[in-house]
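Appendix C: a fully annotated inverse folding record. The material below is reproduced so that readers can follow the format used throughout the book. The structure is listed first as tokens, followed by the designed sequence.
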């Protein structure tokens, strides 16, 4: 029996938002106000498509993007945590469910040397066109009213677990590590023996806390973290049991 670790990416594995970090490539390191103001709630991926098109129009190409993205800092203690997970892959399966994109995540994990730690990465597919523009698509389609149009993390997690079950694998415990509002939907799916680890001071912690105040708390246990060291301490206890 194994444990499943589910990680968000932005503000969890990295200490920034990869989608806003790429703006460092833009002329003057900022976007025109009409582009910035074109975002509509729930349609972030469409907005990022316009941002990437603007970067392409501005002559920003793959090498410059890659150079910028690999400089993004990991969250405190995350390198040690991922190294620890890598040493214990016999007991820990590990996936990412993120609203970033395949290109950014691949670049950052490869540069940091942690690509092999993760069994699968679920995110918005991105690719370069023949003219050197980076394009991004929605991760999938779903019917969840609570989630942005391009990604319901709960649906991804459920489908992953169903696929594993078909292969004869199930997990002793799921540990969900994230920070954002879109991490709440999968956390509400977790069961009594599972654990949600929201990052201290971020939206997920506040939303879980609000549910408790509304007398509809999540079924799983909740353990707040502020650095990878705290997550690693918990995993060490888990593996000792």
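Designed amino acids, in order:
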């Amino acid at each position: 029996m194994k444990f499943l670790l589910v990680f968000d990416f932005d503000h969890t594995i990295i200490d920034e938002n990869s989608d806003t970090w790429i703006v460092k490539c833009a002329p003057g390191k900022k976007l025109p106000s009409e582009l910035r103001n074109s975002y509509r709630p729930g349609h972030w991926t469409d907005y990022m498509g316009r941002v990437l098109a603007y970067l392409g129009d501005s002559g920003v190409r793959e090498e410059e993007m890659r150079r910028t993205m690999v400089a993004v800092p990991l969250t405190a203690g995350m390198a040690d945590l991922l190294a620890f997970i890598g040493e214990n892959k016999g007991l820990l399966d590990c996936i990412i469910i993120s609203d970033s994109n395949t290109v950014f995540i691949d670049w950052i994990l490869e540069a940091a040397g942690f690509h092999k730690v993760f069994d699968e990465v679920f995110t918005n597919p991105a690719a370069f066109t023949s003219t050197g523009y980076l394009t991004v698509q929605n991760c999938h389609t779903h019917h969840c009213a609570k989630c942005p149009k391009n990604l319901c993390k709960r649906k991804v997690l459920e489908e992953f677990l169903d696929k594993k079950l078909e292969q004869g694998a199930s997990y002793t415990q799921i540990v969900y590590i994230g920070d954002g509002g879109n991490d709440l939907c999968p956390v509400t799916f977790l069961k009594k023996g599972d654990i949600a680890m929201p990052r201290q001071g971020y939206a997920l912690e506040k939303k879980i806390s609000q549910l408790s105040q509304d007398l509809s708390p999540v079924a799983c246990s909740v353990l707040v973290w502020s650095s990878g060291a705290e997550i690693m301490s918990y995993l060490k206890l888990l593996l000792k049991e």
